[in-house]
Amino acid sequence: MDILLSQVANGLVLGFIYVLIAVGLSITFGMLGIVNFAHGAFFALGAYFSYELVRLFGWPAAILAPFLVAGVGMVVEVVLIRKLYGKEPLLGLVVTFALGLLIEAVIRHFWGTDGKPLTPPQFLNGFVEIGPIFMTNYRVAVLVATVAVLVALWAFLNFTPYGRIIRAGSRDPEMVDMLGINLPRVFTGVFGLGCAIAAIAGILAGPLWTVSPSMAANAIMPAFVIVAIGGLGSFAGALIAGLTVGIVTAMTIQFWPEASTAAMYVLMLVVLLLRPRGLLGSQWERFE
Amino acid sequence: MTGKFKSVAAGLGLTLLAGVSTVAVTGGAALAQETVKLGILTPKQGPSASIGLNMAQGAELAVAMHGGKVLGKDIETVWLDEASPQVAQQNMQKMADEYKVVGVVGGNSSAATLAMMSVAEREKLPFISAGSAASEVTGANCNRYTFRAQAPVPVQVSAVFNELKDKKIYFFTPAYAFGQDVLRTGRSKLEGINGTEVGNDEVPVNTADYSSYILKIRKAQPDAIFGALVGLDLSNFMKQWNEMGMKGSIPIYEVAVSDTDFWDIGPAAATGTHVKPWYYNDQANPDREKEFVQKYEEKYGQPPSDKAFFGWFSMNAMIDSIEAAGSTEPQKIVPAIESWTYKDGTFPYYFRDFDHQLIRPAVIVKLKDQITDKWDFMDVVSWTSKDADETVAAFGTKEEIGCTMGDL
């Protein structure tokens, strides 16, 4: 029983990282209607930028990484993604898939194929033991940081004028445009926001996973699974699905490790068979 | 234009066309004869991308150290990706059909090597696997066109198991051909060392988070972990092992590790006692290998990993054998590799005729307690065998290996 409790706690940390990756993907899809296959590459870019900033200036400088990745994302939106709005969804899939490969190739070019060592900040060394639950200080910090980012994002989307514009635009962009709001600029901001959230996940995952070009692939598949389980465009759905995937993965490792990477796909299959829109997926007029 | 003139013009035109065609074909043949194409097939993406790059760089350096020529012709290398067994098999077919290479060096993972070697046999394409270790490669699945450079699993496992007498062991292996071989071999040797298995996990390749596995190991309280993770999978595990405060608590023993697995995570997390094919800073390395280290550092700005070494070693064997065969015909290259001998080692190393396994010991290394150099992480503890006789014995008999070699 002790080990199960410990695994659940551990699965929650993994789940929160997945949620962070998936929420950015979900927001991008919800607002722009683009299924962004390059999302994992922005996650990796966040880890690489933070590696470089930490190496040069120390851990406090890592806070700049999401802004840098958001900047890259906004440039990409203006140059490339903008041309995909209203087009065949398959075109968006192909273009963002190619974009992901391009970003990964750029990472290989500048940083090489080998992994980069990024260790947690010194003050987060050590671990906590509460009853049967064993967790490192860094993982507790990841948990706290992720919850803080998700709460801030939720508050931003629900209680600020910008958040209202984003939510309204995700449902009826024409109406928002007719109200005189500069929709292209909002779209650019939303894409940048999605990339910034992916980058935060990359920074937090960097000291846990090896910073390498292939970390993009490790992030993108769980993110898609979580978005599909939670329901496309649903913030709360992504949260529930991410935590569920984290716990299911941890428990599968406990009882059937060989199937641990397949477990989340089985979960997705079951959910989609029972509820094709995902757990909290609702009807979206613009995509019907 | 009269009919007679038309006929003459047409005849002249055809003659010219024929002449041009002849020149083109002859010119093409002359061009084709100017190069000998050699294939390099190693991972370019995924968890072993770093290993693949090192192996390819070693192979390229071997070409350069041969003056870029074999049989008096320029060598042209073709580097394709060994991303997965399926991709590796398709690219091996491409090597034969599209690029018309005369030999291939590469094959890092055992699963990919097993897929590639079936193409090697079918297309009669000499192939030296530089990185695989599963027994089947030179055992049940052996074929006449495939050779293997790295010591197989039983040799490496036996070397580590000498250190694990009377211990409670937790097996931690990857869930594919190589890992299953390591687990099977390890279990078969438990009784001989009076060891006990207290747990095992077969880990899917490309696992990012190992914390749940570490909790299981921590709960099982073994005396030692015996594993065989490869590439970034090992790097991620070591990193999280350290992050969870486990470094130094339970000793880790791994087989078939590479330098890049540890360079990728840095000194803080690197730990354990492992078997690996070669180490660049082994004082026992012969002069030829020291020259390779020097040239590699000059060209790539860092010391070669063991994978770079085996890329270099395998490509050397391929080029030397083509030269010895005096031909690019596979039926002449294969016997030349079978009789090729590397004379610069402590004793001669060679590909054994009955299974095409390179007979060469591996090194046992221990991660330094205090790592101060950017690259020199390890101390060489010993070798898996000390002399020629002991080495031949360690690699097993023909009956134990079970290879039935086909005809050319």
UniProtKB/TrEMBL annotation, chain A:
This protein's UniProt keywords: Amino-acid transport, Cell membrane, Membrane, Transmembrane, Transmembrane helix, Transport
Family: Belongs to the binding-protein-dependent transport system permease family. LivHM subfamily.
Protein name: Inner-membrane translocator
A biological-process GO annotation: amino acid transport
Compartments where located: Cell membrane
Transmembrane segments: 12-37, 57-81, 90-111, 140-165, 186-209, 221-248, 255-274
A molecular function GO annotation: transmembrane transporter activity
Main location: membrane
Membrane topology label: Multi-pass membrane protein
One GO cellular component term noted in the UniProt record for this chain: plasma membrane
Organism ancestry: Bacteria, Pseudomonadati, Pseudomonadota, Alphaproteobacteria, Hyphomicrobiales
Organism, as annotated: Nitratireductor indicus C115
UniProtKB/TrEMBL annotation, chain B:
Signal peptide, first to last residue: 1-32
Keyword Signal assigned: yes
GO process annotations (BP): amino acid transport
Lineage: superkingdom: Bacteria
Alphabetical list of InterPro entries matching this protein: BCAA_transport (IPR051010), Leu-bd (IPR028081), Peripla_BP_I (IPR028082)
Pfam families given in the database record: Peripla_BP_6
Alphabetical keyword list: Amino-acid transport, Receptor, Signal, Transport
Record flagged with keyword Transport: yes
Domain Leucine-binding protein: 35-368
Gene3D superfamilies attached to this UniProt entry: 3.40.50.2300
Family: Belongs to the leucine-binding protein family.
Protein name: Extracellular ligand-binding receptor
